[in-house]
Amino acid sequence: MKKLIGLAIFLLITIQFSVAQSAKVDFSQKPPNLDSLLPKIKAEKNDSARYYLAMSALTISETNPVEDMHNSEIILLHGQKNNDLVCQVLGYCCLCYDYIAFGNKVKSLEFGIKANQAAEKSNNDRLKTFAKAVLALTYLTMGDFEKAESYNKAAMESGSKYETDIISVCAVNDMGTIYLAMGKIDSALVYTQKAYEMAIKSGINYWLTSTYLQFGSIHAAMKNSSLALNYWNLALNEANRIGSPKFVSTAYNAIAQFYYASNQSDSAKLYATRAISSVNNTAFYTLNVDPAKLLLNIYRNSNIDSAFKYSEIYRTTNDSVFNIRALQQAQLMAVEEEARLAELKFEEEKSDEAHKTNLEYTFIAIGIVSFFMIFLIFSRSYITNPKIIEFLSVIALLIVFEFFNLLIHPLLEKVTHHSPVLMLLALVGLAALLIPLHHKLEHWAVHKLIEKNKQSRLEAAKKTIEQLEKSV
What is the pLDDT of residues 386-432, one digit of tens each? Predict the structure, then answer.
């Protein structure tokens, strides 16, 4: 019996250390209020519907990456609290993409890897597409074309397994971007064409401006000047259609840079001026840097007044870029600190809840075993086998040991600084105290049981004698 108890305690100590939304999400729309959206996400049981619900709140990276980062942190924390891998992956993915916008390659890679790990764990193709696509973009910004190509191909493979959505279109378009950066113009053209066909067929046309701009750059590299200009004009029309001053300015600037490189100064001046005017008095004023610099270079030796005018625009825009980035960095630090504190609070709440639950279960188990032991010991109408008491006493010992372990474990972690050796010694010491106490209680219980059994048999014999005497 002692060997059995010792083995059970040893095993227990060992165990302690071994332990439907539409796919057409419109990124041009203002995201919904998170306070009203989170209960809907939590109530939605379908992964696909929950994916698009959460995605609707993460649609402002191109306009306000700081706000998008704030929303991403909230979605990520919601996913962690509710063990929802959909929200976790979306949070990680958007944080990865936003850190790319901030130029922080280390952070973007960190969140990209976390997104990919969570997506693999979920075995959800939508999540895999998004995670692998943003990780590919991260490697592209780092100049690691081999990994960028590999991860983006994996993203496209996952994206081909469900209905076309904005991320699967982006993944194919990004493949063209990657090949264009690698100088593989033919491959870039193939994938940009495929992205265009997917967008037209599915009706997901938010990124058509980007696709047209990419077509223009590809044909410019192929010396197809007329095609390049046609595509940039298509990009301009599309940008006007969706009402995006950012894309309008980008298209005008691409045309201006083309004419400037072709020594067509008059056309370059015209489109550079339009690029500047299209974002005046908007949040995209900082896009004036490149066209203002181009105009400054054109007027430097021919028109002093114009040169001074555009030098001032270039200077103030540069200052604005610096100030905005400084403000964004300050906002970013505040968001990161809020997220850190929220995560710490979440971990504490999670740990406390788990500890409370474990203690409740242990009390219930102790109560059940104690009830049966007391019932068996003090029952006057039941003759019990002592081996039953011995078996229940072993179970009770293990439960009591587990209870004390749960009770003192947080204290042990603090005192031993999580040292496995010290914690093991402490648990062995606890077992050494409990086992002798268990033997005494077991001896008492068996003794009580024997006395009870004798008394029960004696009373039964008396009743039998009385009945015999009466019958005689």
Answer: 666 566 666 666 666 666 666 666 677 667 666 777 777 777 777 77
Distance of CA 361 to the CA centre of its chain: 31
In percent, how much of the chain has pLDDT > 90? 28
| DSSP secondary structure of 324-379 | HHHHHHHHHHHHHHHHHHHHHHHHHHHHHHHHHHHHHHHHHHHHHHHHHHHHHHH-
Contact 253, 244 (CB under 8 A): no
- Selected residue with higher pLDDT from 60 and 14: 60
Which of these three, 190, 215, 243, is where a domain ends? 243
Q: Give the 3-state secondary structure of residue 72.
A: helix
pLDDT confidence of residue 132:
95
Tell me what pLDDT residue 69 has.
81
Q: Six-digit token pair at 5?
A: 């108890």
What is the residue type of 274? R
pLDDT tens-digit readout, 10-35: 444 444 443 333 445 555 567 778 88
Length of the chain counted residue by residue: 472
Q: Which of 225, 243, 261 is the last residue of a domain?
A: 243
Minimal CA–CA distance to 406: which of 25, 11, 12, 50? 12
Over residues 246-265, mean pLDDT: 89
Name the amino acid, one letter, at 81. K
Q: What pLDDT score was predicted for residue 126?
A: 93
Closest CA to 156 of 174, 172, 139, 134: 172
Which residues have CB under 8 Å from 52's CB, separation 6+?
Answer: 20, 21, 22, 23, 25, 165
234 inside domain: yes
Residue range of the domain that includes 238: 170-243
Cα(417)–Cα(415) distance, rounded to whole angstroms?
6
